[in-house]
Every structure is written in structure tokens, then in C-alpha cells.
Description:
Layout: H1 3-15, E1 21-30, E2 42-43, E3 45-58, E4 63-68, E5 72-77, H2 90-102, E6 110-116, H3 126-142, H4 148-163, H5 170-177, E7 182-187, E8 192-197, E9 205-215, H6 219-237, H7 247-252, H8 254-257, H9 259-283, H10 291-303, H11 310-321, E10 326-330, E11 335-343, H12 347-360, E12 367-371, E13 378-379
Parallel strand pairs: 4-6
Antiparallel strand pairs: 1-3, 1-13, 2-7, 3-6, 4-5, 7-8, 9-11, 9-12, 10-11
Bound molecules: alpha-D-galactopyranose.
Alpha-D-galactopyranose (GLA) binds next to α5.
Amino acid sequence: MSADAAVRSVFADRFGRTPEGVWAAPGRVNLIGEHTDYNDGFVLPLAIDRRVTVAAARRPDDLLRILSLEKGAAEVPLADIKAGAVQGWAAYAAGAVWSLGQEGVRVGGLDLVLTSDVPVGSGLSSSAAVECSTLLAARDLYGGPQDRIQLARIAQRAENEVVGVPCGIMDQTASMACTAGHVLLLDTRSLTTRQIPFDLDQAALSLLVVDTRVSHALADGAYAERRRACEQAARLLGLPALRDATEAMLEASRDRLGKLRYRRARHVVSENGRVLEVVRLLNSGRPGRIGPALTASHTSLRDDYQVSAAELDLAVETATTAGALGARMTGAGFGGCALALVPAGAAETVAEVISRVFSDQGLKAPTVFPVAPADGAGRLP
Ligand code: GLA
């Protein structure tokens, strides 16, 4: 049964009526531009063909009832939604409804049935997909802004303030604003976007995601710590954000920054440069040439930013040795997924070699699957 049919049918069984509509929002992978979004920098994500699908209908009261086909049920009065008050997965949905209310929209109660095929905890933004699908449903039923970037900010606020994760704006923007066949260039300072063609078939390329299925603890604290280090580095350089730094400025202030902040900042500065280089190559119709920038991004995330993990390093190294044009960890790091750009004809071999090497080393079997740029969130017909 399709996700659409499944949420409609469970909605009817559970709530005894038909939903007013069904919405869906995808997860994402980030092609390049990692840990740049909270530094006012550039990111280049694509939406993937895995999504959260939600059936929704208004209620005459102020209750939010949410049923996830994978995770169970939760119920919360709208007035009770605030920082830390809702636990677990339900906080993403509840937070999105709350955040829309903060925009001055008179949001009432909702019944929601959700299902997701975005792997959870893998760095593919399953949480942004929950936020964005729920937010679109609530927006269509109760009103609110049309602008996709504004919607992404509302979803981000849910995560920052209700869930309590100090994430940047990339994941929600990708889920809201990506289009099929493109990567999305987002300038996280001006919030301007550009759709950059990324036609894998035409270039006979395949983009493989390697889900290592490991997620190392540490991740939350380390993310906040990296963010703080970047803010401190910008302050020490007398700049609004690391977006404004150059390699020469970092060299000149090396002592003042200290070793660790210098390395964190060097990643951000070099990564912004790589995003723009990849955009140039894609715009000139040479997607097969972006591999070295992807691999250089990984090296920088591993050595300067120090957010990789042994499994991610192994996936990247194995992929490139087995024939990938380039590979890197994607997402926040400390586990989750790597991506590899591979000539289409070599995709199967690369996937097999990765699985074999992981098995030989006694590691958990990774899931390897191809992704292609999909459409962002929307209401289903
Ligand atoms: C997570 C955050 C994003 C971004 C990435 C790292 O996915 O939610 O905002 O900072 O990590 O690039």
C-alpha cells in the first residue's frame, strides 16, 4: 500500500472520519556545504525520494492528536506546547504547529496520522521532514505564509525552541524548497536560493548514500560546541560571521584564534569555497568533475572540523578506492551517512565492495542506496 493510502486508511479507522488532506515532505542529503549554515555560509542540498507523509484534519477544540505508524500515539493540548514539554518524535510535529501559532496564525486542534520512510538518526533529516509536512498541513488548514523560505524558518524555530536543537536553516529549507533534478544553492545569510541542475542520468552518474547505521553519542553536545567555537572565532576576527573570513585573515590571526578555533574556522572558510566551486562546475555542465571537492570536504570535516567517525572514514575511503569520483560524510556527522558520486556503471560494484569491507572488519552492515534529487514538500492530490 502507498504511504498516502496507508495514512488515509489508518486515519479513517482511528478517528472515524476522512482526513481533509494529505501532505508529504522529503528528507535530504547535502551534496556539499557542511557546518556552514550556522556561519552565514553556503549549502547545496537535494531532497531525496524518501519522505514523511501526513494525513490531517482540523478539530473543533485545541487538542493535537498525533499517530505515527512507526512510533505510536501522542496527545497534547496546544497550550501545553513549549520548550522541552513534548518528548521524542512528537515534539517535531507539535513544535511545527506551535511555531505557526507564533506567527500570529490562529491555529486550532488537529488530528494527524504520519508515516515515514526516511531513516531516523541517519543524518537524512527525518526530523525536518516531520516538521515540514506537519507545518504545511497546518498552514493549508489554518492559514499562514506561502513563502517557502519563511516556512522553512518557522520549521527551524520549532526545532530550535521546542525540540531544543540549535540547528541551522539547511534541512528545513531543503525539505521545503528543493525541486526534482536540482540541488538547491542556499545562501544562509541572505536566504536567497538558486536551483542548480543536477541531472545524474544524463551525466551517467549515480549518487550513492551509505548509511553506516551508527550514531555516536556526543553528537548533540559536539554540534553545539562546534557552533560556539565558530561564533567565538568570528568574534575574535572582528567579523559578523565566518562567512566573512578569508584564509589570509585566519593565517594572520592564527595565534589569537588558538589552534582549535583556527582549525574549525579553516574548515568553514574552505568549505564555502568548495560549495561555490561545485556550483561553478555544475553550472558549466560538468557534474562528473565535482568528485575532488567532495573528497576534500570529507578530509576537512575529518581533520579540521573533527566531526567524522571511523565508519564514515572507512565508507569514504572504500568508495573512492573502489571507483567513486568523490565521497564524503553528509549531515552533522559522528555517524549517519556518507555519499559517493559514482559512474553509473560502477555503482553496483562500489556498493558491494563497501558492504564486503564493512563485513570483513566486523562492522554493522551498512545500507547502500542510490538517491536522485526529488521535489520538496507539498500537498498530495
Ligand atoms: C544538521 C543541522 C544543519 C546543518 C548540518 C551540518 O543537519 O540540522 O542545520 O548544520 O547538521 O551541515
